[in-house]
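Weekly structure sync, notes
Attendees: PL (lead), two postdocs, one rotation student
Agenda item 3: pending single-chain targets
PL asked that the sequence for the first pending target be pasted directly into the notes so everyone works from the same version. It is reproduced below exactly as submitted, 179 residues in total.
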Amino acid sequence: MSRIGRLPIPVPDGVTIDIQGQTVTVQGPKGSLTLTAHPAIQLQVEDRSVLCRRSSDEKAHRALHGLTRSLVRNMVDGVVKGFERRLELVGVGYRASLLGPNLNLALGFSHPIIYPVPKGIKVEVKDQTQVLVSGIDKQLVGAVAAKIRSFRPPEPYKGKGVKYAEERIRRKAGKAGAK
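Predicted structure, written out during the meeting:
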């Protein structure tokens, strides 16, 4: 049995979980999230915890067992605490600002990049080089942060670009040794 999948998911106070067939809805103080689970995985609420069970020991079902448990756990954590990713803009003239519901990025191109922020995501610009992406859906927060980073990923020679705050860029020496 999956070591992750068999662990019960504790449900904190203030969170309600509704299971209708294969659809799981988690409601909490920060909002509501919905997931449709695979038919091979059964979800049950017992004693203020959620249990995931699989129908067989097929390889695909074993993989879905742990995945479904992790997705439901992330939903519970999201509606209670939320998730966030911090991004840093490194480079001369690299700036971020908010223009209404859009994120305006100046990343050294001939034009500014205007990124419409998806619904359910909150973007804050701390100073012109610090961007905070937050929300209750872990997958959406990660996807938005990855999309913003993809506009100008950090390069290995000077480290310029958009990087995650905890990311370390492996630096290369450049052409100093060539003759």
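Discussion points:
- The longest strand covers residues 83-90.
- The mean pLDDT is 92.
Action: rotation student to compare against the earlier draft before next sync.
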